[in-house]
Amino acid sequence: MGDLLGRQMFKDTRPDRQVARKWEDERKSDRTIGGSSIYLHNSTFAGNAIVNNSGTINDNKLTESKRDQKDEIDNFFQSSEGKSTNLFKKRQKQDISYETDEEADESDSEDSESEYLSSDTDVTKHAPLLLPSKLECFVDSYNAMSQSKKWILSSGICVEDVLFNKGKQLSVESSIHSWIIDLSYWEIKQLFTDDDWCEITEEVRELYERVAKTLSRFRNIRTTADLRKVLETTSCRNKNELFDREIHFDVEWIDHVMRRFLMYYEDPDESLKLFHLEGWYDANVWSLIIDCAFSNIRGLQTVRKDSSSIAVSRRKNRKRTQKERAKLGRRLDGILRTYNDNVEYGAIEVKSSFVQINSTERLKDRLKLSKSMHDMLVCLTHLVKSNEDKIRQLQVVGLQHSGLKLQINRMSSTKGYISVLKGEDLNEIPTQIKNIKNLFMVLISVWRAKKMVMECIEVIDEKLPDLTEEEFIQEIINGGKMINRSVTTSPPLVSISLPWSFDT
């Protein structure tokens, strides 16, 4: 019955049926010749669109947009050669080789960790191309640099020039576009000779580890009974010594962590070995270690859970017009920020588990973290009125904790317009008390990060040398911006303006 009804409908000769069959035949013909299409009946779009009785959008035109995008980039670099000396040659194809399927499988195993991370450009294999409108800010920041203030190595190589020549060849965003040298990226290392790379890495200041003596009380711990005995029979202070927050806070913090982890190591369910969500690690592990460690720095708070960075917001809105809506800063898992004036000294990124040192998600988070740290560093340079001597003493910290693993990163600008990002060793909280020395290394790394923040705050709060009457008048005329003091002034002050991170 159904077949008979279907055949009868197909033979129907009524006008509407004839029109329907004709439309179906035309649609199939268009699909065969030119690909699938969308028919717009009585379209009335306004502004840069079709305004007629009917229109068609063919998928061939959509595929051509990618070719147009590439042609636009090529034309941009060809037409820009006259704007500055040796600025743009024809844009070369990206010289980054992506992983094959076999290499990707190998990189996902935890046994294949290497000293250097793969570049952040590797994880953006399917990311959209950087259009000329985005690259212009990278070019403008380079053109604004003073040749006399660039970082010139002993070999005569200019670091800014090397990064610029590499950055203009990349078709996806990299930390290079934000003038950041990440010491863990082997692709950046390959841009320099071994001697030049040693000179770059030597410029990163080392810190002292004074807390190590406090941990010596726990050096012979093997069991939970040993740990409980040390906590009950010894103290972090001398006998009859009153507690002084300025002196004893750090050692008291270490004792507090040890007491809490004694509970975890005595737990018959072995909760540290179980899988948990990010919130569990934040509340039960890292807030105890990180948040408590920084809690004695006056005026500083650890803002958790998707807080927008004020420093990133300032960068995004620095060219904002009245017609544009204000842009929020990048949302981070944690920010070290002052209560009163909202000055940011560090950033935190969190993951519930650790896959591999150069996993896709970790590399994405690292680029996000490095740009946020760089924006914070630029904002700090404004607080010291671009005083170069003070800028060289500034440091911003970045903490990445994934599950029970933690890596401390620090960013500073030691020479020229370049910011250097150095990642410390990756440390892990042990799930068994027999490996408790690994917990010591986690505590020491957090303590070192805390000292970096405290030293940076001291630089910000330090008063500049008194100005002469003429220098004071010139500074007021310049809207409060620091001026280059006379060479006869002791000590002479020199200013430098670090470029903002790359806009995306």
UniProtKB/TrEMBL annotation:
Region of interest: Disordered: 1-34, 50-71, 87-121
Biased composition (Basic and acidic residues): 9-31, 61-71
Compositionally skewed regions (Acidic residues) per UniProt: 98-114
Domain of life: Eukaryota
Residues spanning the membrane: none
Biased amino acid composition, Polar residues: 50-60
Protein name in the entry: 6670_t:CDS:1
